[in-house]
Each structure stands twice: as structure tokens, then as C-alpha cells.
Amino acid sequence: MKGIGTEMKGIGTYKTGERVDLFMLIKQATKGITTTGSPFMTLILQDKTGDIEAKLWDAKEEHEKMFQPASIVRVGGDVHDYRGRNQLRIKSIRPAKPDEPIQISDLVPSAEKSKEELYEELSPYIFEITNPNIQRITRYLLKQHREAFLVYPAATKNHHDYVSGLLDHVVSMLRLGKAIAELYPSLNKDLLYAGIILHDVGKVVELSGPVGTVYTPAGNLLGHITIMVNEIAMAAKELGIEGEEVVLLQHMVLSHHGKEEWGSPKRPMLKEAEILHYIDNIDAKMNMLNRALSKAEPGEFTERLFPLDNRQFYKPTFE
Amino acid sequence: MKGIGTEMKGIGTYKTGERVDLFMLIKQATKGITTTGSPFMTLILQDKTGDIEAKLWDAKEEHEKMFQPASIVRVGGDVHDYRGRNQLRIKSIRPAKPDEPIQISDLVPSAEKSKEELYEELSPYIFEITNPNIQRITRYLLKQHREAFLVYPAATKNHHDYVSGLLDHVVSMLRLGKAIAELYPSLNKDLLYAGIILHDVGKVVELSGPVGTVYTPAGNLLGHITIMVNEIAMAAKELGIEGEEVVLLQHMVLSHHGKEEWGSPKRPMLKEAEILHYIDNIDAKMNMLNRALSKAEPGEFTERLFPLDNRQFYKPTFE
Amino acid sequence: MKGIGTEMKGIGTYKTGERVDLFMLIKQATKGITTTGSPFMTLILQDKTGDIEAKLWDAKEEHEKMFQPASIVRVGGDVHDYRGRNQLRIKSIRPAKPDEPIQISDLVPSAEKSKEELYEELSPYIFEITNPNIQRITRYLLKQHREAFLVYPAATKNHHDYVSGLLDHVVSMLRLGKAIAELYPSLNKDLLYAGIILHDVGKVVELSGPVGTVYTPAGNLLGHITIMVNEIAMAAKELGIEGEEVVLLQHMVLSHHGKEEWGSPKRPMLKEAEILHYIDNIDAKMNMLNRALSKAEPGEFTERLFPLDNRQFYKPTFE
Amino acid sequence: MKGIGTEMKGIGTYKTGERVDLFMLIKQATKGITTTGSPFMTLILQDKTGDIEAKLWDAKEEHEKMFQPASIVRVGGDVHDYRGRNQLRIKSIRPAKPDEPIQISDLVPSAEKSKEELYEELSPYIFEITNPNIQRITRYLLKQHREAFLVYPAATKNHHDYVSGLLDHVVSMLRLGKAIAELYPSLNKDLLYAGIILHDVGKVVELSGPVGTVYTPAGNLLGHITIMVNEIAMAAKELGIEGEEVVLLQHMVLSHHGKEEWGSPKRPMLKEAEILHYIDNIDAKMNMLNRALSKAEPGEFTERLFPLDNRQFYKPTFE
Amino acid sequence: MKGIGTEMKGIGTYKTGERVDLFMLIKQATKGITTTGSPFMTLILQDKTGDIEAKLWDAKEEHEKMFQPASIVRVGGDVHDYRGRNQLRIKSIRPAKPDEPIQISDLVPSAEKSKEELYEELSPYIFEITNPNIQRITRYLLKQHREAFLVYPAATKNHHDYVSGLLDHVVSMLRLGKAIAELYPSLNKDLLYAGIILHDVGKVVELSGPVGTVYTPAGNLLGHITIMVNEIAMAAKELGIEGEEVVLLQHMVLSHHGKEEWGSPKRPMLKEAEILHYIDNIDAKMNMLNRALSKAEPGEFTERLFPLDNRQFYKPTFE
Amino acid sequence: MKGIGTEMKGIGTYKTGERVDLFMLIKQATKGITTTGSPFMTLILQDKTGDIEAKLWDAKEEHEKMFQPASIVRVGGDVHDYRGRNQLRIKSIRPAKPDEPIQISDLVPSAEKSKEELYEELSPYIFEITNPNIQRITRYLLKQHREAFLVYPAATKNHHDYVSGLLDHVVSMLRLGKAIAELYPSLNKDLLYAGIILHDVGKVVELSGPVGTVYTPAGNLLGHITIMVNEIAMAAKELGIEGEEVVLLQHMVLSHHGKEEWGSPKRPMLKEAEILHYIDNIDAKMNMLNRALSKAEPGEFTERLFPLDNRQFYKPTFE
């Protein structure tokens, strides 16, 4: 993820006591009332380098409408420590003006490579798929969802939760899939590559978009797995393809969470489906662990990581 | 289920010591070898009234081909007791001749009502669905799978596992659904009736057929729930229907097993889906319990019922 | 539950910015201290239409005694929004005077029908019980606990948690039980009706009363199931009744939570006990879902419902 | 348990190849048919020293009636090894004659001490109970069930599954309870001793009797815990005792299995109830482990012990 | 634990409204900021009799360095009630001076007996171990860790979480172990006593020290069980001891948590290991229950006890 | 695994009806008795290509001693089908003579590459470990256990359960570890390679040997994980190495089963430990799946695979 460890001076790099004057994106906005009855606002502000909780103590009625999520603001204030985390006391805040040279894409983290570069790396994998039915279905569905597929995150939080995070995740999985397929040549590369590419494409329906991402009603009611299994069926019908490849490709997507409790109504029953499940896990966990460990000091543990069974990970003192 | 408790003289009504001479259907056939090395065959033979394990001790090479599952035979022999269950020692056995007035449908248990009667009872429910999108999708899919839907069982064993068992189960559920919808008028009848009708239609793809039923590969790899959710998507596309009804109908089917561990990747999130799950359970359990209790004596427990958490049920001594 | 959706102007119908002047019941009262050290009180106030959190910022020593739970007050103040929920800033508050025409029963939600109407609907079911032993035990126990049974809630929260909620729940279950018994005539109505009527009567010992309901020590240490199973034993002894009916009736109550983990030391082993468990569930869930969905907008999800595995339910945009 | 390790020449001490001529009790009898169609009987025969599976190959029709469970027979035959366990090939067998000096009590294992000795050891504990309500209830119930309590086993298998096993278990638990109460003087001895004495008395209703023990219908439908909790309630009523002691004593019995999944609808909520659960466990496990280890050789593991999570235990080579 | 129930006038004995002037130890210190932006500190202060949350409202920059955990302060202020618990409003606070006659050991709770008395009670148990290999390993390891073993707590919270808590726990377990071994003479006392003594010695590496106890990195990464199993292996090597005793002693320690989920990679497979697990549990639970019940009033329940499955325990009204 | 799919004519390649005359190794031998009382033996016979159940119907007393597990025999007989699996009816059988050119290593399956080739592939990985402490410990332990490490299986069944299976598994994991470390350069190769090499070395103590492998008592009581963690501690002491590397290396081994329930008392808390767990799983599962799928026909499912949650895997009809 770009931003982590880069040199740019952003909100993620300020320390307690420093003064801030930055364009930032409002990620979340909540109205509050102090115990003595005066109104205030809590904003989560972000740029590419991180986010911070900010308090606007002297909130007016009009502020609520002015400072909505997904809008850009120019903010001045002081960073101080609140219960071990940085907090920003806002001194000045105003909406960005239309002619100011700043846009949302400047303020949200994104994959390290551009979406064009990533897609260029993905393309050859499609053409390595030799089974024509599998290749055609894969191409058809990628084409159909291309625009969203290039910019969506892979999740609302935890891993690859940034612009183009989905594509970033898929390309990383393809690299790993290729390495594994070379070591275990009995694996069918066609199924494995198509499975990797398609496994999460349903997220472009399940989630609302690349920024301020939430679940859609259809996402909640069906889930990205069911959505994508449906799309494979419809693609096959559209392309006039029948036969085992369709069912097996559906099974790859259907089973990739590995267990019923994790949302796959069928456990993997293909060698390639079993491996897809592992590749997905390894790549997601490496992403989470790298991020969490980048914030920890050598000789210390990370904070508890909820999606990793609430474990804390240790950062060794040697390299 | 027809046959239970009826007066017809069939294999289910013979007692130890009686001599049998009947047409029966071979449900299962296995070759064995005695501990002293001589070959024999174990056949499961059935007619409408039940089934029995039968031993053909003097099996010849040609017998294996002659006595295949799903073929009809004329069998003579003696019933004796083997570990508390009836067993048939075969004295004579031959394939039924083409001109003999017996067919498979005479030998397999089936719903008490004919499939035509059942379907006639089902039809009005479709026309009570007032939402046109829901009604059209339901009719389209019923029409498409009508032939199989009329004769398939609802399962390979446990409940409604007989010819037209699926239809029998659905009609019984509709009756119960209607009663519940009258008591809880906030329930949306359109969703409920359509959900009941469609929830298990995917079984006509998941299972192999009405007799000697096993799982198909697609059934194993995808399951009837996913299969039917796909079909709803394709029906909607075919009919040019868009909108919430499609997703909600898919959700009804998707969630009807109630929990991830039971094969529903989403738990019910519609009031009607929650109720559908209960109706399905009540009807299946009443079917299993009635069958098991019909074999138990008053004052005794049934055998352990695996799909009911291995419980035994008590049959009271009073009525 | 009366009050939901009715036209009466009560606390549940006020919006942010409105001024309130109402009699209300104190449901809960807690003393606090602001971060700057001044004392205040947090009250939960209710009337038939709902409840609201209220802050009394200038609390005096004497207020604590004056404003105790289960007492009636006259309150004036302003409604404002606090973290997405309504809150009342109290401007004036005083205990209700003895001669003011207001009593607790005017301020707590209750079943839609009166307890008399409900009991009248219940009575005929008792007389439909044809087995004299079962009928006599049922009548004896109802008579013994009649007074409390007419006014107790079915639970402290979640479902039927209002005055006469227990009776309301039981009558609703009887209606459903009757419908099911008609569809599945093999069910023994005597056991089913008696089981429905008695299953939760132990709550009149387990819980403290109809208002401000909490668990009693005996309720915590034994639970309503054990309490009622005991009472059946004692009733039978008192009435000189012996025989299977006593044990079966005890088993109906004992097993109605369905599983050990849910507090039934024996799972259902009678067909009627299995069905009682389902009827209890359906009626409780319909009550919870109707209430939660009445607060949600079409096209949105309810809040998370803890007793329904923390699920959110969707309210369709069409009817 | 008497018999284990004693010098008496009984069936438990014979080795492969030896000839047997003994009175034994038929514990179980099953009719079979060989793969070649000839009838035989499998008997489980026992005396105080153990049991053995026996085959009567030339079974006649009349044998089935002659050799019923719980009858005594005189048997001659040869011991041989069958799949690692001893088996008896019966050469001669006949029912014991009325005038032969042998009775069932001579053939079933029993506690090492006589029931009189055990009861004499138990009595003083009752009189150490100083709370009159607790003492009276305990005495009343022991008196009521004295006859059965003196001879019943504590279980049908696994631990203390022999004549007077229940009393043996209770006395052993009292010794342990006394030692613990001395080390932790805050424990209330009245509750602890009464809880130990009464905790399993419900078994005299749950189980069928001291020999050939099976579950009764009431035992299956209610369980010994519920049965005993009922009896405490009725005893208290009979004796005119009211008050907390009754509920606490019921809770002691109710919670002694420790968890809902293990049949206690309430977990222990009294310090003494928690300790009762441990004492019950320790004594039952010591009984099972001593028995299993007495059959194992030093340096080897016991067979898998199902009630101990299927573990195998190691017998050290040193003492 | 000394302090509970003693007469000494300490922080645990003050009531709301009283004025305090005491030496206390800072157990925890957190910086905060009020909703209006002014800094304050929250301190947890303790002496032998208990602890209290204290607020220092007018915190200065230098206070943070001055008032660090594990330092002693002289504090004046008022006790008031905050959400049902006592809180101290600090009026005056200063670090203790080097020449003031107060030290940490005066302010932390500790075992009722001195560590010397406890150790004197422990010693004879070592000499009752007759197996020379087991005795030598036990003595070697005790000697090696003696200093820490005498002062460490048995845990950071929940039970025996005070200075010398570990030794207190072990001695109490030895008393119980002796009583059990006398009742069940088949138990090997050598294994049992050595297992009790060594089972938690690994805590002197797992935890940071007797005061302000936290987990060390090695403690987190390996755990006290693995640490001690290693030490036994190394001790045996050092002492030139080989043979079964070493493995069995390791197994005693390895399995004492009883189950894999609780941190024992092997379940007990020795009778003595099974009993060790129970003794550890009984003693830890008695410690927790005595402490919790000492704070509850007769006729009431304790607060929820997290390490006892979140149960509440009842304190009877009679003794 | 050598043998699967090779051309050699061995027992794994015979079909029903064929006559066999081969040297084979007795893997297992059990004595039986037919239902008519005559003794027989059941042998499991193996060579490099598979194994078969064989019946010796006319067993004599002396046969039991002659035909012991792990001895070589010359066997003649006929292959026939028994319940869907091949069985051998023995016509002639005799122990191999000392001068016959056949040895155990000719008859047991083994890794495809020789142990020398495998070890040569392993060596460079050790020298890629740049941290001297980690490298020295790894080399020390490999050297100490080299002989056994070269020939032991990785398990008694399921995966890599053949001569040199452990080494084969480790080398395959190293290849995969290298590929992953290249894709995720933040991984510490020293920890990862050392963890892979050492993770299962404890099996050389846990298991009895390369042929006829069973668990040793120490293996049962401690397990290979604990054994190896001990050895790392002792190696470090021997080599005079202190510091974090020792603890981290122990943690790698300790946590490699991933969860407490699977025998790791600590879950992975190092990024490299998490990845080690995945690499171990992928390699073990590929081994099991390749073996199971090699026996299945295209278009069919494998048999149920117990260590893969009892799943069946599908073998596609296309490549």
C-alpha cells in the first residue's frame, strides 16, 4: 500500500505537539454533546498517509451540513495525545474551494503500483489459460466488470482496503499461484488462474465503491460469493458454453472461503480450490501483518489483530 | 407416505417364519464372500410397503449382471430374524419378464396423493402471489422443471425420500405457510409462498432421479441451494425482470438452511426467510417422526434418529 | 404490543427540538459525576409509547431519594440528539402527587388486548384437553398462579417484555398450536395445549413482577423450567394423580428450550415437545421481528438483534 | 470394587486354552445366524471376577427361552483368543437348579465393603449437618429411598457400575469432601455433605435396578437430576420447610454436572456446588482409572477410555 | 491473602465522604484530556487493603514524569461515589521522600503467611519424595529459581495475584494433594508432589516480577508450561539423570492445564497428572471465590467472574 | 512417493482374477476364528507398489510365530474382490530365506529421490541462513539427528508416511518457502528456513522408526513439538548461545500446528511462524491429494479423506 513508509509529509507522520495545516478528506463525521450540554463534532480525517480523530469543540448548527463524509476540507490545529493515540484539536476548518488543486484521489491510500501497471501484469495470466471455455468466461466477466474491478478495494477494512486494493490482491495472488503451480505441476493452471482472477470480482457488487466503502443491500443479502457464482452461470449461458468447466469454475469461487462457517456453502473439493483458499489467506495475511508490523517497534508486539484471531505479533530486534 | 399403515400385503408386513413369493425391486446389490471363501450376494429388495435385506447364498458369476439395482425380480424365500431385524433367505429369484404386469412405479413408495392431485393443490398458491415479478419468476421456473419436480424425492433418505416426495413436502409446507401467514398478517405472502415453492427445486439437478437416487457431481460441487439461486438469476434475466424482488427471492432460497454450518452462506435476514426455515424444519421433522413412531410400540422409544441429533422419541401409552 | 404505531402523543413520538411536558415512569436511575466533578443523574423515563434517556444536570443530594425507579414524575425539558439517539435535557422535574390522575399501569406498555380478553381466549383450550389427568393438572396450576400469570411479562427484555406479555405469548402460541395440530393430526392435542399453557408459568417465580422486572434469587438458582417441573410434580401429588401423563407433562416443560446449551437438560423426546419448541420460537421471533422492523425504514436493515444471533433484518421497499 | 485383584478363581482369571466349569450369570443374550444360515447364540456371562463373551454354536429354538438375561447357568467350555480378547466356546450349558447353592448376589461384582459397613460410615455425616432444615430434608429423602440407595449402582457402565456402587461412590465422596472442607474452612459443610449425599439419589428412579441395569422411561425423559430436585421440593413441602435452604439444596443437585452440555441447566452458583462438581469428578475418575490401570502392564497404555475424552493412560514402570 | 478482612485502616476501608491522607503505590497511570480540552491524570492507587481510582484534575506537564507506576506517593483527597464504585478526588499529591519510613512491600497485598513460613511448610514435601531422580530434579530447579519463586505472584490477575502468591498457591495445593493421596493410596506421591511444586515455576520467567506484573516477551512466545518443560530437560541433563522419570515429570507440567484449548498440548495421560489438574483448579477457584464472596452481602450475588465462565455466585443468608 | 504410477509389476498393480507370486513384507498380522470355530490369519502384505489384505484360511499354531509383522515372505495366491477392494486368498506362503536377494528396503515405498539427493538439495538452505546463532543451532541439531532424519517418515499415515518421507517433506517445503520469501521480501529467511528444517525433527523421537512406525511412549506423553523445543534449548546451552534467536526459533517450532486444538500451545506470533504453518499444510495436503486422486477415475470423487475433514475430492474429466 502506497504511503506506508514513504517520505511525504502527511497526517500519518505528525507527532504530538506539532501544528497541522493540511487538506484532508472527511472519512466519518459524528455530532456530539459534552457532559455540560454544548455541541461538538468528531471527525475522522485522512490523507494518503493515515487518518486521525479530530475534535471541533465549538460546533455550530451549519457545521453539520458543511462537513459531511467524503468531502475535502482545509484544516489547521494541534496534535496531542489522547489515551495513547494521536488526536487533533481543530483550530480552523473550511471546505476546499472548487479551484483548489486537490481531489479525493490525492487523499486516499492506494496500491503502490498504478491500476494500469497492475492490470498489465494480470493480462498475460489470462492468456496462459489454455482451456478455451475457462478462458472465455474469465475474459467475458473481467470485461464486463473492468471499470469497477480496477478501482475497488478488496474489503472495507483489514486487508487491501484501499483504492485498487482488489486488483492489487489478485495480482499478488497470481504471482504466488504461479510459483506454487511450478512446484506442484499436477495443479491445473487454467482452473487456478481463473479462480484467482474471479474469486472476489463479486465484491464490485457487494461493496458500494472505492471510497467510503460500505456493503450494499444485495451485498448483505447474497454476498460476493453467490453473486459471482451467478455471474459465471449467466456468462456461460450468454457465451453458449456448457460442460464441466462451468461447474468447476463456479465451485472454485463458491468454496474459496474454505468452510461453511466462513461463508462457503461447499468446502473445496478440487485440489485447485483447496490451493486457491490457501493463496487467498497467505496474501491477505501478509498484507495485514506487514501493515501492523510497520507500526510496531522492534522488540514489541503489534496491537491485537481482530481478523487474525485477535493475536498480537512480535517484531524481532534483529533483521 | 403411502404404504405406511395400509392394508396391502407387501414385504413390510411379513413376519419371521413366513414364506414370501413377490415381485420386488432391487434397491441395492453387493457381492460378498463368506469367511470360508464362497461367493454370495446381499440384495436390498423393496416394494411399496417397505424393504428387506436378502441373502443369495449360492451366487454364480452371472448373477451379478442379472441382479442389478433398479431392476425388478420375482423372489421366493423365507423370512427369519437376524439381529432383531427381518432378513430374507432367497430360495428362488429371477428377473421379471417384459410381459409381466409389473413396473417400477408399482414397487416404490410414493406420496399418499397422486402427483396430479398434489399439483392441483399447489397451483392456487401461485395465483395468490400478487407481486407480478415474484409470480412470473415462480411460474417460469416451475414450468421449466415441471416434469422432474412432479416425481423427484425431497432427499435420498431421512424425509420425503420417495417418488413425488419433493412435491408432497412443498404442498404440506404451503398449507402450514398459509396457516402461519393468517396468524401473523405482517408476513408477506408473496415472498413466503414463492420461497416455499422454489426452495428445494434445485434438488432436481442435485439428485439423479426419482428412483435409486444419488447425488450428481454438480449436486456435490454446488448444492441445490446455489443451483436454484443461479436459476432465479437466469430466469429474471430471461424475463427482463430487475429489482429488489429478484434479490429477495434469491435470499429466501439462499438462507433457508438457516445457518452457515447447515449450508446457507447467509442466515435469514428477511422475516419471511426466517419463517421459511421453520416451516421446512417442522414439515421434515413431522415426516420423520411419524414414520419412526409408526414402527415403535406404545411405551417404547424409537430407534436413534440420526438427522434429529441421534435422539430417540417416546411413544406414549395413551392417545 | 399496544403503543407501537398508535396515535397517542407519548415520549416515543417526540422528535429532536421539541419541548416535552409529560408524566413518566422512572425505569432506571443512576447517579454520575461530570469530568469536572459536579454531580448529575441519568434517568431512563418511559410511558406506554417508549422510553428516553434523560439528564438532570443540576442534581442535588435529595434528588437521589426523590427520583427512585418505579416512581412517577412530571417532567419538562427539551429533546435533542445524542449519538444518533434521542436524549432529554430536563428543565423541570417533580414527583407526581397522590391526587393526580395517573398510575403505573398508564405508563407501561402492555398487550394489545386486555388480560381479561386474553384469558377468555385461553380458557376453551383447557377444556379441549380430553385427558382428565392432563386437564386437571393444567387447571390446578393455572388456578394457583392465576393472578401473576395474568400480568407478568414473558421476559425481562427481547420479546413479550411487557405487562401481560406472558399471557399474550401463550395465547398466540395456542392459536399457532391449533393450526399445526389440524395440519398434522397425529399430534396429541392434550399434551400440546397443556405444554403451551404451562411451559413458561415458572416465570412467575423466576421474575420479580410485571414492572421493573428482574430475576429473583430462586429464578437465578433454579430457573423457570425447573421451578415448573417441580410444580407439576407437586400438583400431581396433591391431586393424587399418578402415571405417565405426569412425566410426559414434565418432559414437555423440561425440554422446551430444545437443547442443553439453551437450558433444557433433556432434548425433546416427544413429537409434541419438539413442536412446542418450534411454536415457542416462531412466536417469540415474530414478536421481536415485528417490533424491530416497525422502527426501520423500507430499504434499510434493522439494528443488530442480539437474541437473533446478532443478525440485522431487511425491510423490503415493496409490500 | 471387590474382585479386581482378588485371589478367587473366577471367569476373569482364566487364560486362553483353559477349560471352564462354572456357575455364571447371563448378562446379555443375542440370537444370531451364521453366514451359512445356522442359528447360534452369543451370551455375555459374568461372575464376580469379570465377564466373557460366549458362543453357543448349536443353538436350538428352546435355548432362546431357557437362557435369558439375569438367569444363572452352569457352563462348561474352552477359553480361546478372539481378536485379542478371551472368548468362551460353550460345550455344555444348563440352567441352575433351584436347590443349587448359588444366587445372583454371588455372581455380580459389588463394592469392597458391605452395604451395611458403608451405610454405617455415611450416617455420622448426616449428624454433622447442623442446619436443621438441611438435615431433616436429607434424612427424610434417605429414609424414603433407603432400600434402593443401598444396592443401586452409580451408573450403567464406566464408574461404580456394580451393586452398591452408588453408596460406595457417595461414601468415598464424603471422605474427600471432609478433607477439602477442613482445608478450606469457609465452605459450608451442611450444604456440601447434604449435596454429596443427595446428588445422585435420583438414580434409584432413573435406573432399573442393581442388576442388568438399564434406563427407565422416566429416567430417559427427566433424568436423575430433575427427579431429585423434584423430590427435594416435595420433601420440603411434606416437612413444612420453607426458605432459602430448600432452593440452595435443589441448586446443589441441579448444578452438579457443572455445565449445560453435561445436563445441568444451571452452572454452579454456590461455592459448595462448584466443589461438589469437582469431588464427583475426582472420585468417578479415580474409580475408572484404577480399574483401567489394573488391566495394563507397566510401561504400557490403557485402552482408550471413552468417558475420559477417549484418552489412554500410561502406567509407569516404577512405583 | 492478607489484608482482606483485617482491621488495618487502609484505602480499602474508606467510605464515600471520608477524607484520605495516606501513602499509596501507583499501580497504573494514564493521562487524559477533558471534553473541554484540559489535561488530567487517572491513577490507580493501592495499599495492602485494596485499590482506588483517583483523578488529578489539574495535571501539569511535569506530573506525568513525577507520577509513574510503581512509585510511592503521599496523597490527600476526598472519597466519593462514581457509578457505584469509590473514586478519589485528589487534593494534594507528592512523591514519597527517600527518608520516609515506607516501602513498596508495605503497600502491596501479600500472602497471609510470610514467604519464610510458607517455604518451611513446603520443604518436608520435597523430602517425602522417595524416588531419587524425581527428588533431585525438583530440588535442583527449586534451588535455581528459589529467589523469584519466593516472591512471584501466581498470575497477573484473577487468583493468587499478589506477592508470594505463587508460593502460597503451591503450598495450599500440597496440603490438598496430601489429603487426596491419603484417600486414594494408588496415587504416586512422588510424581504428585513434584508436579505440584514445579507446575508453575515457569511463571518466574513468563512474568516480569512480583509488582506491576506483566508478561515478558519470552512468556508470551513460549508460555510458562513450555519454559518449565525445557528446564526439566536441562536439569536432568545437568544432573546426568535419564529414564522415564524425566519424561513423566515433564508430562505432569505439560498437561496440567488439562486441555489443548487451555494451553496443554497433551491432555493428562497419567493418573497423577489428571489429579494435579483438579488440585490446581480447586485451589485457584477457592481463592477467587473467597475473594469475590468477601465483597458480596448475604442474600446477594457476586459480580460476574470472568475466569469462572462469567458466572455470578450467591452468598447464602445463613451460615 | 516412488511407486505411484511407476511401471514396476507389484501388488498395487494386480487386478481381480490374477494370480500372484511375490516377495512381500508383512505389515500387520492378526489371528482370527471363523464363525464356525476354525482359526485363520489376516495379513496385510506390502511391497513398494502398495498393500493388500490377505487371508490364510488354514492357519496352524506355528503360523502365528512364523508370520510376524516386519518379516518378509514369499506368497502365492489369487486376487479377488471383497467389498469393492482387492483381497488375496493365500495358496502358499513361506518366510524368505536368508540367502534370497530381497530386503525390507526393497519392499517399502520411499521418496522418489534418494535420501542422499534430498539431503544435497537441503544443504544449501542451511548456508543461506545468515544469522550465525540460528545457523549454528540448526546445523547442530541436524548433525545430532542426521541418521534418523534421513530415513524417518513424516507420519505414521496420511502424508509422507514412507521411508525418508520426513526429509522429502522438508525439502519440498524449503522449495515452497523460498518461492514465498521471494514474493514477500519482508519475510526473514533465516527464521523461515530454520523453522522449516527443524519443525518436525522431533518426530525422530516421537516415532519408533522408518518401518512399521508407531508412537513411542515419550512421543505420546510429550509430542514431537515439545521434544524439539527442548532440544533447541539444550542445543543453545551447549553452544553457549543466548538471546532472542533461541526463543524465536523455539516459537517457530512450538506454534507450527497453528492452533491450541491442533497441539500448538501458542498460536503463531511471528510472521514467519504464520507462513511456516501454511507451508506445512500446503505441502502435506498436496501429498495427500495427489495420492488420493491418482487412484480415482476422471469424473469421479476420491474416497473420503479423513485428515481433510472427511472430504471427497473431484477429479475433472479434462486436463
Strand percentage of chain A lies at 15-25%
Show unreliable segments of chain A. 1-7
Shape of chain A: elongated
Largest interface: A-F, 41 and 41 residues
Mean pLDDT of chain A: 90
Taking strands numbered 1, 2, ... along the chain, how are they ordered across the largest sheet of chain A? 1-2-3-5-4
Rounded to the nearest angstrom, the radius of gyration of chain A is 22 Å
What does this structure look like?
The structure is a homohexamer of 319-residue chains. With 319 residues, chain A is an alpha+beta fold. Chain A has 2 domains: 11-106, Nucleic acid-binding proteins (OB fold (Dihydrolipoamide Acetyltransferase, E2P), Beta Barrel), CATH 2.40.50; 115-291, no CATH class. Helices cover 42% and strands 17% of the residues of chain A. In chain A, helix 3 packs antiparallel against helix 4, helix 4 runs parallel beside helix 6 (189-198) and helix 5 (165-183) packs antiparallel against helix 6. The longest helix of chain A is centred in the C-terminal third of the chain and has 24 residues, at 271-294. Mean pLDDT of chain A is 90; it is low at 1-7. The A-F interface holds A 131, 172, 175-176, 179-180, 182-184, 186, 188, 191, 244-245, 248, 267-271, 274-275, 278, 281-282, 285-286, 289-290, 293, 301, 308-309, 311-314, 316-319 and F 131, 172, 175-176, 179-180, 182-184, 186, 188, 191, 244-245, 248, 267-271, 274-275, 278, 281-282, 285-286, 289-290, 293, 301, 308-309, 311-314, 316-319. Chains A, B, C, D, E, F: Its EC number is 3.1.-.-. Chains A, B, C, D, E, F: This is 3'-5' exoribonuclease yhaM. Chains A, B, C, D, E, F: It is an enzyme of class 3 (hydrolase).
